[in-house]
Write a structure and sequence with these properties.
The structure is a single chain. The protein has 13 helices and eight strands. It has two domains: 197 residues, Rossmann fold; 56 residues, no CATH class. A hairpin with a 5-residue loop joins strand 1 and strand 2. The protein has an eight-stranded mixed β-sheet with strand order 1-2-4-3-5-6-7-8, with helices on both faces. Helix content is 44%, strand content 14%. It is α/β, with parallel strands linked by helices. The chain is globular and about 85 Å long. The longest helix has 28 residues.
Length: 333
């Protein structure tokens, strides 16, 4: 005969289960907090030297500033680490000066989206940068758009990677709306081998930042050791939250700088329609897809991404030459 647990016994089991769950959550949170991001390494394998900048409100972040030549300033997405560009900074430092800082983690209570733009302005002033190409991915693209609108005289060009000009989830269907939080939680809080295995499933489904491109394993490792797992969700949410009540599309028509919009066609996080609209609203923009990729094209297919950017930068440099402006149009002799 089956004996039912009384109220005290059921309560005890529930309390034990709750305590075990809390202990597990605490352990995984501590594990994530202890993670040290792999450094960005140059082509000889040495870690790029990092400095620290303190902004005017007292917040400090790390940055890298290496190479020489025309300047490229890079702005990460919502997870915020400069290491998101680990496949770009060493590559482009061979012929350019590359500068990239982490996004801030803390905001004053009254700080809005403009604080992130002010950070870029303070960084380029501190590094004595005059004119440069500004390159932003995801949330970094929105920061770049506003910077271009506020400081047009500073830009030689503008590159927007998997961009957004506003925050909206209207395009996310019910299934993806359920799967995305699940992908976030399993990536951040499961044991690494299990999280890695599930991330391969998320990649096949194209959920969240994952895609099923040939470089999906690089993106999975990024999520586990560099990006989302090393950043508490509240930090990313606070960064994105600064944009929630703003629509930057009105800024785009006034940005005269030559622009490149790079897009992963399988990105459901920031859909293709957004990127195409941004490219159409910019007066002088080129739209380039990176086939097979989703939201993090620069990580999952860095070779194709770098090639597209390098080609555009070469054309920009050619068109910027003073003697280029004086070349005849051709015609009958």
């Amino acid at each position: 005969m089956t004996r039912r647990l009384g109220l005290p016994g059921g309560f005890a089991i529930g309390a034990l289960a709750g305590a075990a769950g809390a202990a597990y959550w605490w352990t995984m949170t501590r594990r994530n907090a202890a993670l040290v991001r792999p450094p960005v390494r140059d082509l000889s394998g040495e870690a790029l030297p990092a400095g620290t900048i303190e902004y005017s409100d007292g917040e400090s972040v790390e940055y890298v500033d290496v190479g020489s030549g025309d300047v490229l300033v890079w702005i990460p997405g919502a997870d915020g680490p400069k290491e998101t560009f680990r496949y770009q900074l060493p590559h482009f430092a061979r012929g350019h000066r590359v500068v990239c800082a982490d996004l801030r983690r803390k905001f004053a209570a009254d700080a809005g989206f403009e604080r992130l733009v002010d950070d870029v302005a303070e960084l380029v002033e501190a590094r004595n940068l005059d004119r440069f190409v500004l390159i932003g991915t995801s949330l970094g693209s929105a920061i770049s758009i506003r910077f271009a609108s506020r400081f047009p005289e500073r830009l030689r060009g503008l590159v927007l990677c998997n961009p957004l000009a506003r925050v909206s989830y209207d395009h996310v269907g019910l299934n993806r709306a359920a799967l995305t939080p699940l992908a976030m939680v399993t990536t951040r809080y499961l044991p690494t081998n299990l999280a890695r295995g599930l991330a391969r499933a998320w990649s096949r489904l194209g959920v969240w930042i994952f895609d099923d491109s040939p470089g999906r394993d690089a993106l999975i490792e990024y999520a586990l050791f560099t990006g989302p797992r090393t950043v508490p969700p509240s930090v990313s949410d606070h960064r994105v939250g600064r944009l929630r009540k703003i629509d930057l599309r009105a800024d785009l028509g006034g940005i005269a700088a030559p622009a490149l919009v790079v897009k992963g066609p399988h990105d459901v996080y920031c859909p293709v329609d957004w990127a195409m609209e941004i490219a159409e609203l910019l007066p002088d923009a080129e739209y380039v897809p990176v086939p097979g990729t989703g939201h993090c094209s620069h990580v999952s297919r860095p070779g194709a991404f770098n090639e597209a950017l390098e080609s555009w930068l070469l054309r920009l440099a050619e068109e910027s030459r003073p003697d280029h402006q004086d070349e005849p149009d051709g015609g009958d002799a």
